[in-house]
Every structure is written in C-alpha cells, then in structure tokens.
Amino acid sequence: MSDTRILPDDARIIIPLRDAVLFPGVLSPVTVRRESSIAAAQEAVKTERPVGFLLQRDPSKNDVGPNDLCWVGTEGPIARYITGQEGAHHLLVQGQSRFRVLEFLEGWPYMVARVAEVAEAEAQDSQTEARFLQLKEQAIEAIALLPNVPDELVGVVRSIESPGLLADMVTHMIDIKPEQKQDILETFDLSRRLDKSIELLSGRVEVLRLSKEIGDRTRAQFDERQRETVLREQLRQIQKELGEVDDSAAEVARLKESIEAAGMPDEVLSHARKELGRLQRMGEASGESAMLRTYLEWLTELPWKQSPQPPIDLTEARKILDEDHFGLDKIKRRILEYLAVRKLNPQGRSPILCFAGPPGVGKTSLGQSIARATGRAFQRVALGGVHDEAEIRGHRRTYLGALPGNIIQAMRRAGTNNAVVMLDEIDKLGAGGFHGDPGSALLEVLDPEQNHKFRDNYLGVDFDLSHVMFICTANMLDTIPGPLRDRMEIIQLPGYTEEEKIQIARRYLVARQLEANGLKPEQAELTDAALSSIVGDYTREAGVRQLEREVGATLRHAAMQVAAGKAEHIVIDAPDLPAILGAHRFENEVALRTSVPGVATGLAWTPVGGDILFIEASKTPGAGRLILTGQLGDVMKESAQTALTLAKIWSGDSLEKIDVHIHVPAGATPKDGPSAGVAMFLALASLLSGRPVRSDIAMTGEVSLRGLVLPIGGVKEKTLAALRAGITTVMIPRRNEKDLDDVPAEARQKLKFLLLDRIEDAIRYAIDGQETQAPVAEPQAAAG
User: Fold this and answer.
1) Could you tell me the CA-to-CA distances from 236 to 147, 226, 229, 291 in Å, in that order?
2) Helix, coil or strand: residue 82
3) DSSP strand pairing (469-474 vs 352-356)
4) Would you call 662 helix, strand, or coil by DSSP?
5) Are 487 and 437 in contact, with CB atoms under 8 Å apart?
6) Angle between the 406-414 and 287-301 helix axes, to the nearest 10 degrees?
C-alpha cells in the first residue's frame, strides 16, 4: 500500500544499486529484489514520480543505510515495470539528471532523501570543444573495432552535440568497474569529466586494437572450420605478447625425459626420438600433435624393462596353491614344474597353459592363485564375444580415437613385463568377418617362438611378450581353431566328486558366504550332513557354482533369523533343508527307469560336464521301420542304425513285421555323438530278449558293424557323472583303460569298471549278470 503522506517537492524515492551506475541521457535496465526497493519502484510507478538511483559501496550487503551509499546519483522516471520470477522485478529507467543527496528522511517504508539537482554545464571554450571532438573520434574507432556492432551506432555517436552527454554515454558503454563509473558521475566539471572519459576509452581502444591484430594474424593461418585450433592459437599469441612461458616446451621436455628413462630397446628408442622430433617441429595448433603426444605417452608407460622376479620358493608356492584350491593335483603339479624350470632357467620362455573344463570348476580363480604363488601381477582379458581383430592387435594410428589392443593395454595396467595374463573364455571368440579374425590375431600372442616380437598395429614397434605367463580358459575345445589350440598346453578340469565338493564347500564356500551375508562363524553353522544333502539332492553339476548359490540361500535363511533376534547361533542340518531350499530336486531315478526291458543307461559328455543318458526302446506291429525321437544328431542316428543291425544279427530276427522306436528323453536338448552305440544296442537287446538291463550299470562306447566296441572321449567326465547318479558299475571300451589314470582315486574306489571288447561282453555283464573278467588294475598315482 502507498503511503498517504506526500513527499516534499525536493525529495526523491531512492533505490540502491549493487553494481551498476545510471547516467543521465541513458536508457538502462535495472533489476531489483529487495522488498524495500520493490515497494519504492511500485510507489514511483503509481505516483509517476522520478526515482533516484545511488550506488552502494559494498555490493554484498543486503540491508543498507545512508552511510552505505554514494551520495551522488542519477534520477529519472521508470519507463517500464515488469514483474519477474523468483522475486526479481525488472525496470527500464531513463536517466535525466545528476543530483546530490542533502539528507535522508525517516518514517517511510523505503528510502527517501532530499536532493539538489546538479545542472549540466555546456562547452564554453575551445579546449572543451577539442576534448569533445577527440572523445567522439575515439568512440567511433572503438565501435569500428568491436565485432557485430550495427552501423547505426556510429551515426548516433556522430549526432551527439552535447559533450557531457557523450562523456556519460561512453562511460556507460565501456567495460570498467562500477567505482570508476561512479567517479565519472561525481565529476561535475565538464573538462575534467571529458579528460577522464578520454583516458578510460584510450585504454580500451588499445586493448581492442591489440585483440584485432591477434585475430587478424590468427585468421591468416587457419580457416573457419578449425575454430578450436584458432582459439588455441589466439591463446598462444596472447601468452607471447604477455611474455608468459609456453607450456608446450615443458611438455616436450617431460616426454623426452620419460623416453630416456623407459628402458626401451634401441630400435624402439630410435623410433620414439624420431616421433618426438616431429612433435617439436609441429605447432600446438596442428591436429596431429595431440595424437602424437598420446602415442608417445603410451610408449613411455609400457613396461619395456625386464622386471625383477621374486625368489622362487617351491614350498611356499605349494602351500599357496593348497590354500586356494582343493584337489586339482595335476594342475598344481604342472604349476610347480613350471616354477622349478623357471628357477633353474630364469631366461626361459613361458608356456601357454589352457584350462579346459565345465563352468564352476575354478578355471578363472586358478589364474589368480598362480599369480599369487609366483609373486607376479595378474591381469584378466575377457575374450567372450570379441569379434574384431583390432581388439587384439590394436587400431592403426590413422584412425580417429585409435588405441592399442587388449594385450598391450593389459601390459600397461600390469606395469611389468612378466605378469600372469589370463585370456578368459577363449573358446567364445567371435567368428571372423570383415573386421578380421581375432582368433588368427592371437596366433602370434600365444606362440612362445614368436611372441618375443609381438607387433601391435597402434604401437608399430615390437614388444616382448615372452616373459608373460599366458593362461587361457575354455569350456569346449571344439570351437577353438586348430592352429590356435596347437600353440597351447591343454589341461583338463573335468569336475569334482561329491566328496571333493563337500570339502570345497567346507573350506571355502561356507566362509565366503558367511562373510557375504554378514554372518560370523559363531552365528551360523552347516553340518556335514547338510552339505552332503545340498551336494547330492539339490545340485548336479561338474563345478561348484550352483553349490555356492545353494549354500548362500541356506545362510541367508540363518541371517534372517539372527537379524530378527530369534536366535544367536543357528545349526542347519540335513532335515532342515526342505523347509529352506524346497523339496529335493534330484533323486536316483536309474533303478526306476531301467526296471523294465528296453531301457539302458548311457553316459554322455556335455560342455558343462558329464551326464547320464537314458536310451528307451519299444516295438509295435509294423513294417520294419526304425523310428528315432529325442532331437538326435546325424552321428547319433547312424549309431542307432548300426545298433539295430547288430540287434537283428544277435537275435536272428529280421524284424520285418515290427516297428522299432528308439527314444532319448529330454527331447528339448540336442544330442549327438557316437558314444551311445553300446547303450542303444543293449536297449534293443533287452527289448528283444524281454530281460531288463541291470539298474546299477551304465555304459559308454561306440559300436561297429563287426560288433567291436570302439574307444570314446571324456571318460573322466562320464565317470564322475555316473558317480553322481548313484551308479556302481561302469562299462567302458577296453582301449579306454589308459584314461582311468585321470579318474579321481575316490571315484575309482567307489565304482567297478568293466572293459568291453565286443558287444557280447556288454550283454554278458549288463543283461546276463556275469562278471567273469579279471578286476581292472588300480592305476599308479603320479608322484608330486
């Protein structure tokens, strides 16, 4: 609300300004936020009174009084009032005349002061006229040096006839501090005001002239499309004019020191010095300089020097391997052999080991244990899905954003040239296409005879990888190209027995899951019976990945009880598991399935370990057809044809009026391979003779039309699968007897192995129940 009192004629409503000075004759925007200033502006608009604007001495102060303001200001009417957002109100003010404050009046909701107007003096002599003309010329020159200024502004300046108005307008337009503008405003003497305006404008014209010279000099060298480069060149020219030190010289000196200290081979050192010379000759504005600097940084950060190898202690290494992994005697022995050779021949080349086996058997974590046992740095390179050769060999430097390949990047991260580098999932490399073949690019990396001169496309120089211990992992060897597989030493990790899984769970998995679920050993405990039940009734895998998940689920149940305060110590036994994990997922179905004629239990190999395979056969009246179901591959179909022919010969029946149907359950799963030949023949022989196959026996082997049982692969995986399924007797081809060396001793003790030469042996053992052959000799355990 407006005040009912009337202001004296010589009084003005006062609005303080934080960092702006209003000049007579100038139309200026003003923004007000203080409540008192908003009330003053609204009252001035309502009463159509002029407002006085004074500069406050401290712009950060919100509550100001008379002593906080300069007492000389400019008055003028508010031409436009706009209400803005967030409490800001915008005014458009037309300055009219200077005034001097006489006194401030109290009792108003805004600042009010009695003022005395300061009259503007006119030019009376030739000296004032000369100063006026000089200021006008400088103003026109300044306008010409400013970019994107309308031509009409020059005409406006030329049309000004008042020296005081020109001085005020020029001071308003120049970019100077508010204190300097206030000084001009308080200079009532026209000659002195013109002198001060000329002095200030002269300094700004000199800066504008210098800036224009720098811009003209720069534009002569570069075109419009290199805007970023132009800005950098302008900065360099400004630094040169100011006498500042150029940072590029210091950068080149730093790179030179790094190159000399990197320990590069002579050929690489010569190449790096040559590239550094190129960098010195090209300017900062060159588009190639940043790329060349990055390249030299890569060269200096790679581990060219022979890294010191910690003393090799075989006893300590064996202790570390035993701490990290249970079992895996063959792998541990191979690692210790490597360390022994390295100890005797430190300059020897490292082998390329490839751990092949189903998921969850510890291939990847084994690489970390090897690095710990050997005292080396560890780096992992994931190869799954890599389909571009450049991800192995790097991109050429001609490409935008080029980088070295994953191998060189791993060496840079390791910081040493004798690290353990794990190439994970090498069997899942993408197929070669127009991007190149990544598998072929790995041939040089994984060849001990070639990798001492590995050449990355980005580096363009040889790098020695012979001291690196490469370890590869794979689930399947069939998908690895032959030349690549030939460069690696394959070490199979087929899986664990039930007893080994219980030990692994007891030693590693339970402790890890206790920590993951926030439990302490004294708060939760799993009995051996519970672990045995989890292994046998809830998991059926070659590795221990699912076992760890089930252990984690069991301990999460315990964690919920402890967190709720229901118990302080929980012991989980086998009878408690159905309430936690649900009903048993696996049971011994061999006896149930093979209790009728026409069913035999085969053994199969899969990428995730071995498994049992039921072969079911039935007959119906028909025309002698063979019906095959269960999504069988071509090789398995041919085995079924061979088995049927042998069954006809064995039974003496041509089966002309009977249709034979062979089915392999789990029809959604593709199946192929020749090793089901014996099982198919026994299923048919059982069907035709009306006698069931023994429920405790499983078999594997390929058959020929002469009735011979031929060798197959994956004996260890299939044997462990039979043990998991509750089989007690396994029939294998006699020519696979040597593969029993790889079967764990626990499995050999729990299983009876029968060797087959011909199909008649299989009938005698599996259907007739005769086991007349001599027991299989127990393989000698390897030392180590």
Assistant:
1) 21, 15, 11, 20
2) strand
3) parallel
4) strand
5) no
6) 60
Give the active site residue among 466, 675, 686, 695: 675
Instruction: List the end-to-end C-alpha distance of the chain, in Å, as a whole number.
Output: 101
Scored b (16 or more CB within 10 A) or e, 63-99 reads: ebeeeebbbbbbbbebeebeeeeeeebebebbbeebb
Q: Residue 689 catalytic?
A: no
Nearest to 362 by CA among 471, 477, 521: 471
Rg (CA), the chain: 46
Among the listed residues 497, 659, 679, the one whose alpha carbon sits nearest the alpha carbon of residue 593:
679
Distance between CA atoms of 230 and 248, rounded to whole angstroms? 16
Measure CA 226 to chain center.
33
Residue of 171, 151, 13, 159 whose CA lies nearest to 93: 13
Side-chain half-sphere of 55: how many Cα atoms within 13 Å? 21
Closest CA to 183 of 124, 192, 134: 192
> What would the two tokens of residue 570 be?
């929980």
Q: φ, ψ for residue 38 (rounded to 5)?
A: -65, -45
What are the backbone angles phi and psi of residue 765, rounded to the nearest 5°?
Answer: -80, -45
Apex 139 CA angle, 135 and 142, nearest 5: 140
With residues binned 3-state (H G I as helix, E B as strand, rest as coil), the percentages for the chain, rounded to 5, are 45, 20, 35
Q: What is the token pair recorded at 88?
A: 């800001």
Three-class secondary structure of residue 548 per DSSP: helix
Catalytic, 718? Answer: yes
CA triple 75-77-80, angle to 5 deg: 135
Element containing residue 320 per DSSP (H, E): helix 314-324
| Amino acid sitting at position 590 | V
CA 690-694-697 angle, to 5 degrees, is: 140
Rounded alpha-carbon distances, angstroms, from residue 170 to 143, 151, 188, 228: 11, 17, 16, 33
**Of all helices (H) and strands (E), which one includes residue 330?**
helix 329-344
Q: Say if strands 378-382 and 420-424 run parallel, antiparallel, or are unpaired.
A: parallel
Is the pTM here over 0.70, yes or no? Answer: no
DSSP, residue by residue, 414-425: HTSTT-EEEEET
pLDDT at position 681 is 93
Residue 287: other Cβ atoms inside 10 A: 10
- What number of residues does the chain have? 784
DSSP 3-state assignment of 126? helix
Give residue for tokens 């307008």: 169
Distance (Å, whole) CA 672 – CA 159:
99
> What are the 10-residue block averages of pLDDT along the chain, 784 residues in total?
69 91 91 89 89 91 90 92 83 92 90 90 78 86 77 80 87 87 90 88 84 73 61 70 63 82 86 84 71 86 80 84 81 84 78 84 83 86 84 83 87 88 86 71 82 85 87 85 84 78 86 88 87 83 84 89 85 88 71 72 77 88 90 90 91 87 81 87 91 89 92 85 84 91 82 92 85 46 33
User: Could you tell me where the DSSP H helices lie in 505-567?
Assistant: 510-516, 528-533, 545-563
- Spatial neighbors of 269 by CB under 8 A, at least 6 apart, are 259
d(CA 209, CA 410): 54
Please list, in sequence order, all residues whose beta carbon lies within 8 angstroms of the beta carbon of residue 5, skipping any fewer than 6 positions away: 107, 108
Q: How many other C-beta atoms are found inside a 10 Å radius of the C-beta of residue 234?
A: 16
* Max Cα distance, the chain (Å): 143
